[in-house]
Amino acid sequence: MNKMTPEISGGVGDSPRKVETSEKVLGRARYIADLSRPGMLHGAILPSPYVHAKINSYNTEAAMALPGVEAVITGDDFGHDYMGPFIKDEGAIAKDKVRYIGEPVAAVAATSPEIAREALELIEVEYEVLKPVLSMDEAVADGAPIVHDDLEKYIKIFEAVSYDNVMSETKMSEGDVDAAWDDCDLIVENVYETQAQNHMPLETCGALAEIDGNGRIELWSANQSVFRVQANVCETLGLPMSKLRCLTPSIGGGFGNKMEAHIQPIVVKLTMETGLPVKLILSREEDFEMIRARHPFRIKMKTGVKNDGTFVARDVEILMDGGAFSDDSPGVLGYSMLCSRGPYRIPNMRATGQVVYTNRLRFAAFRGFGNPQVNFASETQIDEIAEKLGIDPIEIRLKNAMETGDTWFGGQIVESVSLKECLSKAKEASNWESKRKAYAKDKGPIKRGIGLASCGHISGLLGTGAIIRLLEDGTVALNTGATDIGQGSDTVLSQMAAEALQVPLENISLASPDTDGSPFNWGTTASRVTYTTGRAVVGAAKDVEAQVKKAASQMLECAVEDLELKPGGMVGVKGVPGHEVSFFDVSKYTHWAVGGPIVGSHTLVYDKPTIDPKRATVSGTPFSNIGAYAFNTMVVEVEIDERTGQTKAVEVWSATDVGKAINPKLVEGQLEGSFVQGLGYALFEEMVWDNGRLANPNLMDYKVPGALDVPHDIHSIIVEQPEPDGPFGAKGVGEVGIVTVPSSIANAITHATGVALNKLPMTSERLFEALEEKEESDAA
Amino acid sequence: MSTISLRVNGVERDVSITGCETLLTILRDELKLTGTKRGCNQGVCGACTVLVDGVAVRSCLSLAGLHDGAEISTVEGMADRQTLSSIQEAFSETGAVQCGFCTSGMMMATKALLEKTPSPTRDEIREGISGNLCRCSGYKKIVEAVELAAQQISAQEGAS
Fold first, then answer.
1. pTM (two decimals)
2. Which domain holds residue A748?
3. CA–CA separation, A664 and A12 (whole Å)
4. How many domains does chain B have?
5. What is the pLDDT of residues B37-58, one digit of tens each?
6. d(Cα A318, Cα A166) in Å, to the nearest integer?
C-alpha cells in the first residue's frame, strides 16, 4: 500500500481527496435534477395499472387539449424497435401490451410538472386484462400465459436457448458429476432462496434532452455509461447514433440500475415531438416501480466431499426471476453459474440454469451480478459440510482453495489468486479461533456468533479506451468516457495518469464523458473501470511518453533509448541530472515547431476466453471473454437476541485482494459501502409484491440501513497480489465486498444459534420462528 | 399568491407562494439553490435537510409558507466563497463523500448536531445522523468526518 513514487503527489498508492470532492461539499456539483434549459418543458409518465393486459386503444385528445400540454405520446408513436444488451425485447414504452404495474404506457410534455401530471389523468387507455405470470413457478407451469409472444423473433446477441417463458437457459459442466457421487463420503443438498433488492441510490433516475435546428439531439441523464444510453436510445427510436450526443452530469449513485436505459428513450422522443428541451425526473415511488431490482433466485445445490474435507462434486440448479424484460438477465444467469463453484477446486461440476419472464419489473444488474445469490448457497453449504465433518470452516476452505495458475469454473487460468492469504489475514485479524470457541458457550438470551465466507469476482470485460493530450503549458488532459457514479474512478484514473507520466495529480484534468469526444467505454459496471479502463490509461500514457521522448531526443540531441521520465513533468537523460527538458518545453516544441501536438491513445477489449472447450462443456453462455479475478474473505461477528430474533452485525473484517490499491482510502470506501448495502440485503431489505403490485415502493416501507444499523467497526484488510496485466497490478473492488455479506452473516447466525435459514432476508421474524421450531424439535 | 420573506444564508429573499410549495421546492426551483437534494420527497432520506432558525428540518415536508421571517441555512452558505468550513473540510479529508447526493443534508445534520453537542461520542454521532441515509459509504467515514469536524471546531474556538 505504499506510494509508488514518493515525489509525485497524488500518484498510485496515495489517497488524495477525490478530484470532485470540493464541488460536492460546496453544493455546486450539478446532478440531473439540477439542470435546466431555456424554454424547457417538463415530462411525466403514465404507468400501467395492470399486471398483464393487452392495449386496445388510446384516447389522448383531452390531454392534448389541456393548456400547457405540448405533446402526448403512446405506443402508437413508436415502431417495433427494441433494445436489450443480450436479447432485444424491450421498446421505449409499452406497445400492444403491458407487462407489469408501473410500466410506462404514455408520456406527456408540458410547460410545468403540475400540468404534465394533470394531463396524465386525462389520457384514456382501453385495456383487455390478461392472465398474469406472478412468480417463477407460474412462469414455468404447464399452460402458463406467455409474457413475450414474439420471443423467437427477437434479436439475440448470443446463442440463446429461449422458449415459452424461458428467456435464457444455460448449462455448464466439468468432469463427471453423476459418476463422482460414488466417490463421496458425505453429500449435502439444500434449496436456497433470495429476494428482490432495490438499488436505491439516493438519486432517482432522470433525463434532460434538447434538439437542435438540424434535428441532432443532446441528452443529459443519470447514467453509468453514456455509450449504453446512446445505443439504447438509438435502437428504440430507430435513430442513427450520429444523431444523438450523450453527456453526463454528476451521478447520485447507481449500483447497476442506471447502466442500461431507463426513461431516456421517452424523454428523447418528447423532445423530438416538441422541438423543445424536455426534462423528466422520477419520483422515488416511480423509480421503485418502474426501473430495476436485484434478481430473486431459487438455487438447488448439492455438494459431495471426502471425509477429510476434500471437495469432489457439485450440482447446481438455478431458477431466476427475470421480470418483464431481459435487460442483463441472461448475463446475470451465466455469471452466477460461473461463480457457483466459488474460488475452490471441485473437479466435477455441473450447473444448469433458467431465467424466466414474469409480470414484474425487469430484474437486472445489481452490484455482485448474481454472485451474492450463489455465494449464499455455496458458502453456507460449505459451513454445513464442515460442521458435519468436524472441520473448522477456515481449514476446509484452505484445503480446497484455488491457487495461482488454477482454472476458474469453465477453464480459464487465473493468473493471480490470493484466497489463502485473504483467509489467513481475516482469521488472524478477527481473533477467529478463540472467539469461535468462546461464543459457542453463550447461554443467551444474547448469543454471539462469528462466521465467514469467501469469493472471487471479475474485473475484466468488454471494450474501453483512453486519450491523453499534452496541453500547450505541459499539463495533461485525460479523457476516458468512464462515468464516475461516486465510487471515485475519476480520481483513480487520474492518479494512474499522474503516476505513468510522473506528474503531480493537480496537473491532470479529466474530461466528462461525452459520446462526441470520449473514446468508447462499455460502462461503469462489473468492477471493471479501475482494471479495464486503467489499462487503457496506462497504454495511452505510454503512447504520450514515446512521443515526448521522441521530441526530447531532438531537443537534447540524444537517442530516445537514453531518455527517461523524471518526477514533476520532466524528461531527461538517464542518470544525468540537469540534462533534461520539461513537458512545457516539449509541448512548445511540438505545438509550434516540430512534430505536432502530442495526443496519445490506447483502446482494448478484454479478450481472454472464459471457457476452455477442452475442460468444460457449455451451452447458452452469454459471454465469451470475462476474467481478472479479485478475492475476498469476510468475517462477521454478530449478536442475536433470542427473544426477538434480531441479528446485529457488531464487527466486520473484510480481507480483500485488489491487486494494487491505487487509492487505499477509496478501496476502503468501496469495502465499507459494499458491506452495509449487503447488510440490508442479508437482514431486512425486500421488495414485496401483492398480486403483481409492489407493496412497498417507498422508503417508509422499504428500509435501507441507517447509521444505527451498521457495525461498530468495519475493518478493511487490503491484500495486494498483482494482476499480471492490470494497471500497476490493480484489480477491481466495486463488487467483491458485497458478495460474501449474506453468506458470512448467515454462517455467523448458524454459529450463534445452530439455525440455518437458507432464505434471505434473514429477518427477526424468520429467525425467531426458526429458533422456536428448533426449541420444539430439541425438546421432542 | 402571497409573499413571504426568508433570510437564506444571511440574505433577505422575498418569495411569492401559492401556499402549497414546500421549502425544498422554493429553495431549488425559485431560489435556484440546488445544493439541497430531493431523495424521497417523503421525509425519510434526509437529503433535503436544511437549518431553520438553527434547527435541522426536512425541507421536503415543510411548507415554505410556515417560515415567513425565518433564518434558513443551506449548503451554499457553509463556505466562505472558496474556503471550506470545518465540516466541509472534514467530509473531504476523511473520504466521506462518494456520490455526494446525501452530502449536503448530512453536513447540515452535522452542523445542527455539533452546535448542540460540540464533542459528541461515536454513539451520539450515529444518533445525530440517523435520519440521513447514505447508500454509498457504509457511514464509517461519515462518522469519522463528524468526529474530525468536532475536533477542528473546538481547536479553532480554543485558539480564538
1. 0.97
2. 297-460+611-779
3. 9
4. 2
5. 999 999 999 999 999 999 999 9
6. 13
